[in-house]
Amino acid sequence: MAQQDTDQQHAGVLPVDDEGYVIDTEDCEERETAWRERGTSRPITVVGNPVLHRECKDVTDFGEELQQLVADMFASQRTAEGVGLAANQIGVDLKVFVYDCPDDEGVRHVGVVCNPKLVELPADKRRLDDSNEGCLSVPTAYAPLARPDYAEVTGQDEQGNPIKVRGTGYFARCLQHETDHLYGYLYIDRLSKRERKDALRQMAENEPRYPVVAND
178 catalytic, yes or no? Predict the structure, then answer.
């Protein structure tokens, strides 16, 4: 069964390693540029917008509309100087996120995940990292948040092929953060009431450096 799964993934957009995880560290600049140049940057939706606070719909159509959405997401991510972006952050109710994120060793990862699911980790892999976290949808605000320093996500690539993605450190945080978005959770939802209030205060006191959609 494992060999069959791996063989199927070799037909996907990205190559996979011996354990079936995508190799998302090769040709990063070329791949990100190709996506971004086809896309149009869109403003970022911010906390309070209903699309951010409910679970998104599964991606079922992997055609041209999705390809354009992914291109727009890469363009929007670059404009906002982010390392990950979920579709609902530009107002689209679909389970897809893009990333262009370094890990703690400075290795760059670029990819697309549709219909992601976080893999439950065994206890021996749950080492927590309480580094600061921020979000394009909560602009200018940061707070420490404990998350596992290793993460695995299963899902599909932009062509619908099954994929597995794994990451450590900052990239692991990105995978968890973006998957959360698609199930209706912002990182501030995982903070204490006091910490959440402080993050919203930071957001209110500062101006975002990129275009945002104002809430009515």
Answer: yes
